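Project standup — Tuesday

K.O.: blocked on the structure for the chain from last sprint. Re-posting the sequence here as requested.
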Amino acid sequence: MNPNATGITRGIDALKPGLICNTLVAALLFLLQASSAPAATWYISPTGNDSNSGTSTNAPLATLPAAQTLASSGDTVYIMAGTYYPTTTYPVELGVYVPVILINKNGITYKAMPGTRPVFNFSLVNPTGERVAAFWVTASNVTFQGFDVVAVQENITTSNNPVSYTHLDVYKRQPYTHDPRIGRVRRLYVLQAYRRSGVGRALLEAVVAYARDYFRLLRVRTEEAGEFYTTHGFRCIASEAETTHVLELTRAA
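H.V.: unblocked you, prediction finished:
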C-alpha cells in the first residue's frame, strides 16, 4: 500500500460537499463586501489646501483636480461656498482650446454643498490667440451640479475678453437680441471617440433642464449637428440672425 494513501484519503474525505459550499459562500461574501465598499466624499474650499486630506469640511482641498486625483468612481466631491480662481492649464486641444480643469476620471460627481452656489472664475486664464475650455471632460458618467462658471475667455484674437457663462460654458444670453429670456447654446461639443454613446444627449438634456429656470427660448447655430438638435425637440428656422434651430421652453412641473 502506498504509505501516503491514508493521508490522501483523509484529505479527500475532508472536502465534503458542505465544507466546499461553505467555503465558496465565504469567498463570495468576501468579494461582495470588497466590491460594495461605500462611496467616499471629498471636499474642496477656496480656503483649503491640496495637502489636506480632503475628507472633511475641516480639512478641505483647494482645487478640483486635487480632489479628482484622490476620488474613485462612485465618489462625490463637494464644492464648498466661495469663488475659485483656477490658473493651471494643459496643452492646447483641437488647435485653439486651452483646457484649464481636466476631468479624466470616470464616475465622479462634482456638486455644490447643499444651500450654496459656488463660482469658478476663470478671469486669470487669458492666453493670447486661444480660447479657454474651462472644463475639458474626457471621462464618462461624470455629474456636475449646482455651481456657476464665469469669466471664460472666448475671443481668440485678443489677449483678454472675459465673458460670463453659466452651467459649464454651454449656454449664455443670446447676443443677437435684447430679450433677456432668450438664450443660446454654444460649444456643446463631444469628442469623436465619445460620440454615439449618449454623452451629447445627456449634456443637452442637462442644459435644457437648467435653462428652463432662466429662458423662454433657446437658440443654436449649427452646420453639422442639425439632425441631433431636431431629434431632441429643436425646430429648424431660417428667419433669425445666426440661428439655425430653436427650442421653446416651459417651466418644469
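K.O.: great, moving the ticket to review. The chain has three domains: 1-37, 40-169, 171-253. The domain at 171-253 is CATH 3.40.630.30 (Aminopeptidase).
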